[in-house]
Here is the input.
Amino acid sequence: MSTLSIKSTARMNSGYEIPRLGYGVYQTPPDVTEDVVLQSFKAGYRHVDSAIFYRNEAPSAAAIKKSGIPRSDIFFTTKVYSAKLSYEDTKSKIASSLKQTGFDYLDLMLLHAPFGGREGRKGAWKALLEAQDRGEIRSLGVSNYGVGHLDEMEEYMKELEQERGEGKGGKIDVGQWEIHPWLARKDITDWCEKRGIVVEAYSPLVQNTRPNDPLLQPLVKKHNKSPAQILLRWSLQKGFVPLPKSVTPSRIVENASIFDFELDEEDMKSLNTGKYEPVCWDPTTAPGSRL
Ligand SMILES: NC(=O)c1ccc[n+]([C@@H]2O[C@H](COP(=O)([O-])OP(=O)(O)OC[C@H]3O[C@@H](n4cnc5c(N)ncnc54)[C@H](OP(=O)(O)O)[C@@H]3O)[C@@H](O)[C@H]2O)c1
Here is the structure.
């Protein structure tokens, strides 16, 4: 039986730990966020994935404070969104997230999408590094970066190291992408694996668009688990950190009840589709993210 549990964590390049299951709050209305985040804690999650774009950093933080759980036991992520990333804009957005949450530090801050050209992306990364030096952000990463953007990062991380001093170009701790059996993104996940980068999977339930898919149904019957549970188990066993979202109390519990069964090798193989079918947005290839 699996050794994973709801308390399992992965160690990031920063040395900090990240819980292997997250709770996403994209499209969760601000006025229900506090309540559902509190429900997620009751179900055992200790990891909230928010973003400036979601407009629910403040109620997510309010739930964390109200929960009575020590701040250090909860992992909170937010993301800088900009149609045109830049140093100044990222600096002011970091300050805004600290103000919105009232936290002394953010566990993880991601650049939400690679929009704005090389200099903008480099400037945004530099702003994150400076905040990390000040202790405002513990771990850093990117979301929706294609392999080209990641290769480019390695170049400007070297440049920043020359400007800022040895070892100060930064390390990518986490990358976040839409990942599920119909969009496995092996090129990106291989790139990350080689560098010890934790991969988070967003839209891990394919936004509930495929519950009756013929690939899932045999596994649903075999394991007596829901399609969502099968998809989350696939994600965990691939080594990812899935971030399911739900505002439905029973589903919040269901999506955390995935540690009492395991998919075997054949089950995992049966979900290799080789497809590239995003259900959300795909800025890895959008015109605004041109290299
Ligand atoms: N970095 C990025 O660009 C990016 C983009 C998208 C998402 N994300 C992150 O990833 C998280 C999840 O992604 P997502 O919200 O796009 O999609 P998702 O988690 O794949 O799917 C959420 C949808 O599935 C439904 N659902 C949840 N649990 C279910 C279950 N057990 N059975 C059936 N349906 C279920 C939800 O409905 P109810 O809520 O009504 O229950 C909601 O409609 C987000 O909240 C966010 O944190 C990041």
